[in-house]
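The instructor's notes for this session suggest beginning with a concrete chain rather than abstract definitions. Hand out the sequence below and ask the class to guess, before any prediction is shown, which regions might be ordered.
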Amino acid sequence: MQILRMLCFAAATSLSGCASTGVVPMDRDTFMISKTSPACGFRSAAGTKADIYREANQYCSARHQQVSTMSSSSQDGIIGARCASAELEFRCIDPGEIDAGAADRLRQNAQQERVNNQIDQAVTPRIVITPPPRAVTTDCTTAGRNVSCTTR
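After discussion, reveal the predicted structure:
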């Protein structure tokens, strides 16, 4: 029964497609993109994150600029619990412009994502399939008044 539910869940999520916001202006020079993977539980957030970076790069390239990451976050998919997702907040800067804090922000974001995904993996209930109990066999023999039994 549980396997049937998992198959129905997988079929429903694969038909739903991925949810993407596209590039959304946040203020004068900051933008956001978020995306949820269509393969719920069967995909890490890396592919979803790569997709939104591609979209951000296309957006900035059309403006003859490059992406500067302000913040990013992602969550790996967990079967039966959630789909992989990623979010990116970015700016488009001129190619010659130096963004001194970008490397530090990326490092901090990556470290926080690793910690969050480790916590999620540790606290999310897992589907456990246990085999049925083995049949117990008892053999008894009688020798006069003595009865001897063996359980296997």
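Then share the key points. Residues 2-151 form one domain. DSSP finds three helices and seven strands in the chain.
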